[in-house]
Amino acid sequence: MPLLHKIAGVVIVCAVILGLTLPGDRRGREKENVAERVAGSAGTADAASARKPGASPVPGGSGSPSASATPTGPIPAAAPGAAAVKANELGQVPVLMYHRIVKKPEMSLDRSAKELYDELTRLAKGGYCPVTAGEFAGGRFNVPAGKHPVVLTFDDSTPGHFTLDAYGRPQPDTAVAIIQQVARENPGFRPTATFFLNKELFGMEDGPAAAGLKWLLQNGFELGNHTMTHPNLAGMSEKKVHDEIGGMEDRIVQMTGAHTATLAYPFGSVPRKEKWAREDGGRYSFQGIFLAGWRPSTSPFDEEFDRWNIDRVRSEGKIKENDCTRYCSTAWLEYLDKNPDERYISDGDPNTVTFPKPAEDRLAKEYRARARTY
Questions:
Q1: pTM to 2 decimals?
Q2: Structural domain tally of the chain?
Q3: d(CA 326, CA 6)
Q4: How far is CA 75 from the centre of its chain?
């Protein structure tokens, strides 16, 4: 993967040069067609960096899978408990993006096992509760009142993410083992994550890989599609896009008997036509697609949420490289701690969407039936 990491580093630099949304600048953005802009960006930057500063994608598809009929009349009052915790389910959600987990980082996207442990512990102590990429994209997840959803995503299915020992347990210092350890040490921190897979499945042969994927599913983790060979999809034909995504989906279904719910674009690069990635007959059909961006995602209940272009944040400290002093996970988590009114705060009820009344104009209309205000 070294060459891919080098290319990804170039993508990151391009993203910073092009200019991304600064913390707190989330509203009042002009909408435009992301697919057209990405097609003209030579395929090197992710969808977030392909937008002009301050721009927002046009929501795609036929609406959220959990959308309800739009009612009329005033929005009902929030439950007293939801108001007491200052629920804001239109707030921002960090979707963290990890690549290799190793003992000693060697490349720019690497994180050490200790760095992962420390970041997950920080999340647990800070009231964050992991949800899967599929749950988030579909707008259906259950987080305790007063807590904050976070999505943990791991790209490229490398050995540092997951392997089993001779006793069928996750190897120490792998991402799965660390997630489970943090969950044991912090009750309420749900041990789940989404692994976006390439054809080299955690460095395993096909037999052990199939057993490993089934283990992940049986133990509460989620599988996602990251294409067969991790190509830049931006310059590829429709057939090649279908082959890359469909080939990986075929492999996952063959090994597990189940389809994936979400896709993550390699390098964050969007195909010339986004619909090529969204579905291909009965071969694959996703609920959401994730970018490789540099800011938290809007709430899935926000009118600006685009489930076909979901932002992620690279896991990294506040280092100067690639402007991580502002755009990587440590900086964004600090920002949300200091600006709690901008962060997603759960009302504790997965069947309602609660938020302060002044934010009513931000609610996506398809969720009005579930809305509650205070």
A1: 0.84
A2: 1
A3: 21
A4: 30
